[in-house]
Amino acid sequence: MSSMNLGDQWRRVRARLHAELGEATFNSWFKQIDLIGVDDGRVMLSVPTRFIRNWVVSHYADRLAKLWADEDAGFSRVDVVVHSEGRPDPAPCADAVPERQERAAAPAAQPREDVVLANAVPQGFEDAGVGAPLDPRFTFEAFVVGKSNELAHAAARRVAEATDVTFNPLFLYGGVGLGKTHLMHAIAWEIRTRHPERKVLYLSAEKFMYQFVRALRFKDTMAFKQQFRSVDVLMIDDVQFISGKDSTQEEFFHTFNALIDHNRQVIISADRSPSDLEGIEERIRSRLGWGLAADIHPTDYELRLGILQAKADDMMSKNGPISIPPGVLEFLAHRIVSNVRELEGALKRVVAYASLVGRPITLDMAQEVLRDLLRSNDRKITIEEIQRRVAEYYNVRLADMLSARRARAVARPRQVAMYLSKQLTTRSLPEIGRKFGGRDHTTVIHAVRKIDELCSLDSGIEEDVDLLRRMLEGGHGAG
Ligand code: ADP
Ligand code: MG
């Protein structure tokens, strides 16, 4: 078993798992699994979290062992370890891996320490450790409302304030870092103050599965069922993780149905709509969509600026005045478009830097401190910008980009612009064609091929294209 083909063997094992389990399940559990190495017939794999480790060991240990044994009969066992957070993978040396002995006991391992009940009222619940704690910052007061989240916010408010059950379930969905968890916690806080007697349980879908697997392991499923079914409000976050493994889905579905039938409020979040949840059975998906599904869209500039102002105010109310000159928040709102978490992180970084280094906050300083973040947030390049830049560069009229003229002096720049549009935007060929005076997509294909070919033949063109690309990517293309 030379290390040379170890990589190939690992690739084959992964490919077979992928084929057997399907995309969704494979991605949930094996996407981030790494091969550390093989030591004395023991194959060592690493995963990012304890939860995934436990799940993989309890569900797929035999399968993994078999697949490896198929590759090489000398591979007698498979160990899965958690690689330490923030640090690189442990060296491929067995002794450097502290958790390897836990294999047999894995599914019974203790849940993470953050296991607390959302609502501390009912006795005996805390010990069961079924819920997760609420973040004190995630309240309705701290949530800034804009066009992109107003429906989700209104629905969350309604559910939090209602005395009767209106939408069941409330299904909140949207991309990462757009406030789903924040809204769920806000609902829980609100109910907690209004109706302290109500049992509110908040947990992630991963934790739900964890609890269930654990209950199965300890043959304690009755208690498990009771815990979940005795709540007034159940919130399950990131439900896209409940995929694969039929028995867990089944249990989730029963719990869900039982609560809804008893008129208890259920609130679910996911990163996509109910109908787009892959790996979840059709009847469950459709049932999830029965109540109200409210999506949170990506933020717009106004909302980002509003959030930054709110966060800055909040920081000042806690840490005293901070001088943020005009233009800095606007700059951040313009340039950090990915999600609210990053936006918040950017502001914190600027403020922390200023206070640590003792420098005043300025636009220059913000740009410097956030260089990497800004690069990854580079705003989307549009076809119009590309056309304008290219026309300017080759000294032709912008209108010529769209015109039917075939003279080389305009045809070549037009092809360059089409080529860059294909490379730098996510527009389809027909869309690009339309933007260039309603041309056919085959014209765009031709342009892309032509420029590719010219670039390899003519270093002048290659340089032009390169320069233009860098100018556009650098964000200097905006007018
Ligand atoms: P998600 O669960 O959708 O991935 P979170 O709820 O964890 O996102 O939000 C990420 C961060 O952004 C949190 O710190 C949250 O407080 C903040 N955030 C998101 N949306 C808003 C908003 N509209 N107003 C204020 N803070 C927000
Ligand atoms: Mg979340």
Characterize the structure shown.
With 479 residues, the chain is α/β, with parallel strands linked by helices. The chain folds into four domains: 3-105, GMP Synthetase, Chain A, domain 3, CATH 3.30.300.180; 121-296, P-loop containing nucleotide triphosphate hydrolases (Rossmann fold, 3-Layer(aba) Sandwich); 301-379, Helicase, Ruva Protein, domain 3; 383-475, DnaA protein, C-terminal DNA-binding domain (Chromosomal Replication Initiator Protein Dnaa, Chain: A, Orthogonal Bundle). 53% of the residues lie in helices and 9% in strands. The chain contains 21 helices and eight strands. It has helices at residues 3-21, 23-30, 50-71, 125-128, 150-161, 180-194, 205-217, 221-229, 246-261, 282-288, 301-319, 328-335, 340-357, 363-369, 371-376, 383-394, 398-402, 408-424, 429-435, 441-457, 459-473; strands at 34-39, 42-47, 77-82, 170-174, 200-204, 233-237, 265-270, 292-296. The strands form two sheets. The protein has a five-stranded parallel sheet, with helices on both faces. A three-stranded mixed sheet has the order 1-2-3. Helix 1 (3-21) crosses helix 2 (23-30), helix 1 crosses helix 3 and helix 5 packs parallel to helix 6 (180-194). The radius of gyration is 27 Å and the shape is globular. The termini are far apart.
